[in-house]
Structures are given as C-alpha cells and as structure tokens.
Design a protein that fits this description.
By secondary structure, this protein is α+β, with helices and mostly antiparallel strands. The chain has one domain. The protein contains 5 helices and 8 strands. A two-stranded antiparallel ribbon has the order 1-4. Strands 2-3 form a two-stranded antiparallel sheet. A two-stranded antiparallel sheet has the order 5-8. β6 and β7 form a beta hairpin. The longest helix is centred in the C-terminal third of the chain and has 18 residues. The chain starts with a helix and ends with a strand. It binds protoporphyrin IX containing FE (HEM). The site of protoporphyrin IX containing FE has 15 residues, from α5.
Length: 145
C-alpha cells in the first residue's frame, strides 16, 4: 500500500508546488535570484522527469517504489517531495500517510472498487491537484449483510 500511495503522490499529489519568497539575493543553479521575489517550485518537474524516472514516467507504476523512495529516485533527494522539503515540510506527513492506509484498508475490507466507465481522467490544479469532474467509482460489497 505504501508503494501505491507514493506513486499516487508522485503523479497526483495534492500539492503541486511550494511557494517561496527569496529573502536575499542568491544563486539557484544557473539563475541569479534577486531578493524579495516570489517563486513557485513546481514538483511536477522532478516528479515527471524521464531522466529521473525513466521513459515510463507518466505511467502509474507503484512497483517503482518496491525498494523504497531512495532507490526509486536513484538517491536524488529532491526528485520526490510531495510533502515538501526542508524545515517547513509537512508536519503531518506520517499522520496523513497512516490516515490514508486506515481509510483504504477499511474500504478494501468491505468493497471491491472499479472505476466507472463514465470517469474522465482530467486532473486540474485549483489550489490543490484534484479531479476536474470528480471520480466516479463502483463499489461492490465483498460480503452480503
Ligand atoms: C496527503 C496529504 C498531505 C500532503 C501531500 C501535504 C503536503 C504538504 C506540503 C507540500 C506542505 C508545504 C511544505 C513546504 O512548504 O515545504 C505542507 C505543509 C503543512 N502541512 Fe501538509 N500535507 C498533507 C496532509 C496534512 C495534514 C492531514 C495536516 C494536518 C493534520 C497537514 C499539516 C500541515 C502543516 C501544519 C503544514 C505547514 C508546516 C510548516 O509551515 O512548518 N498536512 N503539507
């Protein structure tokens, strides 16, 4: 389940970028950043970079994470940051991951989930990444009451 959550966060994590204000002039790679400008560091760049993830970068392949995040990213710390990086990264990273596992486990113990034929894959960024037309799924009970 950890692999599935990581792959979901890689492609469709709710946060798609980290806004930052440059406190003082500095250099970032080949760019000189003047003080007091706002920048947005989009994680869609590294999360979908074929040089980091391979030619199948756009495919949903949880098995990329079979041997952990470090191995999946070829030990590139900034290749995968759905919860941010550094001192202001998400304080609830562990909580959010455990909550997700509990919710999924409760659903999967009771239902099978099939994506509806009416579902149209169209993620959109409106503050967070979200499915533009919702996610239509079919739940079938595993046990009769
Ligand atoms: C999958 C779920 C979540 C994701 C992907 C996520 C992602 C993020 C990201 C990207 C940041 C900004 C990090 C940065 O600026 O470097 C952040 C900050 C934060 N998140 Fe989350 N988050 C999640 C769930 C939660 C939940 C459930 C809570 C609270 C119960 C929470 C509380 C916070 C707080 C308080 C901060 C601000 C930390 C700071 O500024 O020091 N997050 N989160």
């Amino acid at each position: 389940m950890t692999m599935i959550i990581n792959e979901t966060l890689r492609l469709y994590g709710p946060s798609h970028g980290l806004p930052r204000t440059v406190a003082r002039e500095g250099q970032l790679g080949k760019f000189i950043l003047p003080a007091d400008i706002d920048i947005l560091s989009l994680n869609i760049g590294p999360h979908r970079d074929p040089h980091l993830w391979g030619d199948d970068v756009h495919l949903f392949k949880p098995e990329r994470f079979a041997e952990g995040i470090a191995k999946a990213t070829n030990y590139t710390a900034a290749a995968f940051f759905p919860f941010g990086l550094g001192p202001r990264s998400c304080v609830a990273m562990t909580l959010a991951t455990i909550e997700t596992k509990i919710a999924l486990s409760m659903i999967l113990q009771r239902y099978t989930i099939t994506i509806s034929p009416t579902y149209v894959h169209s993620p959109i960024a409106i503050i967070t990444i979200q499915p533009q037309h919702g996610i239509q799924i079919i739940l079938e009970p595993l046990h009769s009451c």
